[in-house]
Amino acid sequence: MTTIYENNPITTELADRLRAMPKMELHVHLEGATDAATVWELARRNKVTLPAATLEELQSMYVFRDFNHFIDIYEMAMNCMQTADDFAFMVKRFLVKQAEYNIRYCEVFLSASFMLDNFPQDEVIEILIEGAKYGKEKYGIELRFIPDIGRQAPETRHKVLDFVLKGYEKGIFIGLGLGGVEVGFPPNLFTDVYDEARRQGLHIVAHAGETVGAESVWGAINDLKVERIGHGVRAVENPKLLEYLAKTQIPLEVCPHSNYRLSVTPLDQPHQMRALVDAGVFCTVNSDDPPMFSTDLTSEYLLLAKQGFSWEELWQLNLNAIEASFLSDEEKEVYRAEWDIFYKKVDK
Predict the structure, then answer these.
(1) With contact defined as beta carbons under 8 Å apart, do 154 and 184 qualify?
(2) 110: DSSP letter
(3) Is the pLDDT of residue 153 over 60?
(4) How far, in Å, CA of 138 to CA of 135, rounded?
């Protein structure tokens, strides 16, 4: 795998701080956080034939040629989920990894468009509630979920909204998202369900400005009126959009390794995060689909450090996640206090 751009050796002290600091993650996909070994195990359990004869061969497929290849592998992984109990299995595996990287709170995407015809909705919701309870009790991690519409399946949008509203009533779903293939599926295809989601009190987010440029981000802002934008890094191509994002402070959920692995960012160039932060845009750090991109949330911070971000800048990005989260003001205050204790301890 080709090396990603790095130009700044970092100290052991900084690396240790980044590993130890408490973190939040606002852009991570449950299905995409399922590693090849778990996909292999699910396939064997559910008698799903994979285009790989061994686990090693399957792992080698996680080197993506382009975004469409990534979607193919992502859908292959989802097809290995055959029962509602598979969600419980995935959530437990997910929690183990999040705990390893000191992640205390996660807002997790579910690829709802591609699961609703295969699983009983009420059963999935109850399993996710139990999974969140397990995560809180065993690891002290709070999980909340944001089901999303697959852009390439706009006909599922009303069904996804109904699913989200069911889970919203149970307190496990907090919002509606939009993911999948940007090219050919602009935000205005989904205005009707976003208007209704907003009316019903859901938080609303959308992936935009990843494989399509500034027009996709403008569409998410103007047509969908999103509260946060997944990725959004292509905004650097449009000075007017950069200025607007800096002025409004609409948060971006930035995922550096993902952008490199899908050729959104050239491997020999610094990540767009530097230009975004320097322009005053409100950014958070996230891992997107960690095992698929050979990363984790700590590695995302380490990469930025190796591209010249200081401890103070990285700590501010970490604080940004609290403010950009969909937690209540009272809940945010609890996390602010925890983060402050850590900061004072390491910054003596």
Answers:
(1) no
(2) E
(3) yes
(4) 5
Rounded percentage of the chain residues whose pLDDT exceeds 70: 99
Question: How do residues 187-204 score in pLDDT, each as one tens digit?
Answer: 999 999 999 999 999 999
The first and second tokens of residue 255, run together, are 């995922």
Instruction: Please report which helix (H) or strand (E) contains residue 93, including its range.
Output: helix 85-100
Catalytic residue numbers? 210
Q: Which residues contact 37 (CB under 8 A, 6 or more apart)?
A: 55
Give 71 or 169, the one with higher predicted confidence. 169
Helix axes 157-169, 121-139, angle to 10 degrees: 50
Tokens of 74: 């992502």
Q: What share of the chain is helix, strand, coil (3-state, %, to 5)?
A: 55, 15, 30
CATH tag for 12-34+101-346 (out of 3.20.20.70, 3.20.20.140, 1.10.1370.40, 3.30.160.20) = 3.20.20.140
Contacts of 147 (CB under 8 A, 6+ apart): 109, 110, 111, 112, 160, 163, 164, 167, 173, 176, 177
Q: Where are the domains of the chain?
A: 12-34+101-346
Q: How far apart are CA 324 and CA 340, in angstroms?
A: 17
- Give CA–CA dist 214/219, Å, rounded: 9
What's the one-letter identity of residue 318?
N
Query: What are 10-68's pLDDT values in tens digits?
Result: 999 999 999 999 999 999 999 888 788 888 888 888 888 888 889 898 888 888 877 77
What is the pLDDT, as a whole number, of residue 1? 54
Return the SS3 of 177. Answer: strand
How many CB atoms lie under 10 A from the CB of residue 348?
Answer: 5
- Displacement of CA 328 from its chain's centroid (Å): 20
Q: Would you put residue 145 in left (φ > 0), alpha (ψ -120 to 50) or beta?
A: beta
Q: Concatenate the DSSP letters of all residues of 260-308 into one string.
A: HHTTSS-TTS--THHHHHHTT--EEE--BSGGGGT--HHHHHHHHHHTT
